[in-house]
Design brief:
Radius of gyration: 43 Å
Order of helices and strands: HHHEEEEEEEEEE
Distance between the termini: 65 Å
Number of domains: 2
Number of helices: 3
Strand content: 15-25%
Largest sheet: 5 strands, antiparallel
Length: about 270
């Protein structure tokens, strides 16, 4: 029976070990002298050393590959955490804008009441001035007073109240569905300096393969865009054909506009 040839350097080293043992056992039969056997032993030991070096190098490569895979997994996890933190920050900014808008709406009745009190005070003062002039004339016939229209009261600071300012809602919202459930949004800006556009989305569902319209209660804030008029929304793990409805508002310095027109698109 013929021994199979070695397939790699490790098998070759074992094959030479066996060959040297056979040669030593049958040196007389094969006519091998001591010098030849010594050279064979040196070759076998050298090949064994190379085989061990190769094994250690392979182990080092495997360890380096494992370290690289672990580093890549940590990098992916860090990137996922960064994306989650960014979404949380955008949601917090949106919640802050909504809270500021709610505070402005709550302060509006107080500002209107103060304006009415100032108008009432100015009207009473205008009505009381002719009588005061008559008392100071010491019996002389007063000239008939001409009716006058009281000037509208303005705040003492000379500024316009924020309750009287209305922000225009974003217009011409366009949504295009792109592959892998990424929707491209674009709109016409309001021209407000420092404006922030609040993007809300409501994701529908599939029922027996047919899409169901998103519920209005399903709207969620997905992004806050600063001084831009476009956004790429990655919907996530939803089936193609699911409908997503979008609407926008603009916020600036504690003021928030009404929602613009809603637009629905089917994911691809």
């Amino acid at each position: 029976m013929i021994d199979p040839l070695p397939g790699d350097i490790h098998e070759l080293a074992r094959w030479l070990d066996n060959f040297e043992a056979v040669a030593q056992a049958h040196r007389g039969r094969f006519g091998l002298d001591g010098e030849t056997l010594d050279r064979l032993g040196c070759a076998r030991r050298l090949l064994g050393q190379r085989s061990e070096d190769l094994r250690q190098a392979e182990d080092a490569v495997a360890e380096a590959r494992g370290a690289a895979e672990r580093a890549m997994a940590e990098l992916v996890e860090a990137e996922r955490g960064r994306a989650e933190a960014k979404r949380g920050l955008l949601a917090a900014e949106g919640a802050r804008d909504l809270a500021l808008a709610a505070a402005a709406r709550a302060a509006r009745p107080v500002a209107e009441l103060a304006q009415r009190r100032r108008r009432s005070s100015a009207s009473l003062k205008a009505q009381g001035e002719p009588a005061q002039g008559a008392r100071e004339s010491h019996g002389s016939t007063p000239a008939p007073a001409t009716p006058s229209t009281p000037a509208p009261a303005t705040p003492s600071s000379g500024r316009i109240s924020s309750s009287s300012i209305r922000l225009a809602a974003p217009a011409d919202l366009q949504v295009a569905a792109r592959p892998n459930r990424v929707n491209h949004l674009s709109w016409r800006g309001t021209g407000e300096p420092g404006a922030r556009y609040l993007i809300e989305a409501a994701v529908g569902k599939l029922y027996r393969g047919s899409p169901l319209a998103p519920d209005s209660a399903a709207y969620r804030l997905v992004a806050v865009v600063h001084d831009e008029t476009s956004y790429q929304h990655a919907v996530g793990q939803v089936a193609p054909g699911v409908h997503v409805r979008y609407r926008l508002r603009v916020a600036r310095e504690g003021l928030v506009s009404d929602h613009g027109a809603e637009v629905t698109v089917a994911c691809r």
